[in-house]
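Quiz preparation item.
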């Protein structure tokens, strides 16, 4: 009769160990590029200019579906202000893969991403 109590305890201990991500979290994502998820790629490639407490680039909160260059209070270049585009998936990917090709004169550097990485970042932007 005592055996089942011990077995249950072992199971509980084993399950509670699964939440421990540590430094290996990069490897555990199923949807990833080079082991990085969209949110991790975003942190690595975009947050230094677009982070919440950074003003180098405009905030990307709710950027998906937004008119380009339309955030009040941010001093955009003429290139982006007069572009007349919306940030849908296609344009966001083009911006990441070839910013100057999409908008000659834009003040944003090439993000050095491939198509798959850009796609994952758009998945993340859609939720911001
Ligand atoms: C070195 C700084 C820097 C990095 C890194 C950077 N950006 Fe930008 N980004 C800018 C600046 C500056 C602008 C405004 C450009 C302008 O006014 O011409 C901008 C504009 C944008 C816009 C247009 C927003 C709007 O309101 O119209 C989007 C979308 C964007 N960036 C996405 C990204 C994404 C996604 C990444 C990461 C893959 C990224 N950026 C990385 C500096 C950066």
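Solution:
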């Amino acid at each position: 009769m005592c055996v089942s109590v011990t077995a249950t305890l072992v199971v509980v201990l084993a399950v509670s160990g699964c939440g421990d991500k540590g430094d290996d979290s990069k490897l555990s994502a199923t949807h990833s590029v080079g082991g990085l998820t969209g949110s991790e790629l975003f942190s690595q490639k975009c947050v230094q200019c677009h982070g919440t407490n950074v003003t180098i680039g405009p905030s990307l909160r709710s950027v998906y579906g937004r008119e380009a260059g339309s955030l009040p209070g941010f001093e955009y270049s003429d290139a982006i202000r007069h572009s007349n585009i919306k940030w849908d998936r296609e344009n966001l990917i083009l911006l990441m893969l070839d910013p100057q090709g999409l908008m000659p004169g834009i003040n944003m550097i090439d993000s050095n991403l491939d198509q798959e990485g850009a796609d994952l970042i758009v998945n993340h932007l859609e939720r911001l």
